[in-house]
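Continuing the batch. This is chain 6 of the set; chains 1 through 5 are on the previous pages. Same settings as before, nothing changed between runs. Recording input and output for traceability.
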Amino acid sequence: MAKQSPNLAEFPVLGILSRGPLHGYDICRNLQEGIGSIWRLKKSQVYALLVRLEREGLVVHERVEQETLPAKKVFMLTVRGEDVFKKWLEEPVVHIRDIRLEFPAKLWFSRQSDPACERRLVERQLAVCRENLRGLENTKRSSRSQVESMAIDFRLAITKGVISWLEGLLEPYWSPSEALCNSTKTT
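Output for chain 6:
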């Protein structure tokens, strides 16, 4: 059986579980409280994702008996699930179109797990966006029609806006705490 391509919504679920074992309802509540304004996942989606993640070996569950209620499933990350989440968290978003949803989630989880070095994530993302900008500029030089050129101009404007936004995110890091991050962590 071929492995399914990852559903981006899996990563916030893995991220919540990276903080410790939780029941499905608590995962939903934590997602809502943490990134709910960015990434809305319905309870039915979360439960379906948990089934898929368990089938892929990224999470496991344990049945916990309750005195007056039916047993509940408490989910936890496997070592593989933890590795998959960490890899996702450290990698910049490749496509500009995914910045709106995926990058703020990565930023939030990065801040939760390693607030002193969240800057590295922003710097990596900035490097990818600058590379995308250079590629678009090269593509524009070889555009064959006015419509193609206009479409590339649109993408250039969005990319430049994202770069400006990311540069703004770095401004708070120009402080003495920056030296701590750079001296204690390496890329």
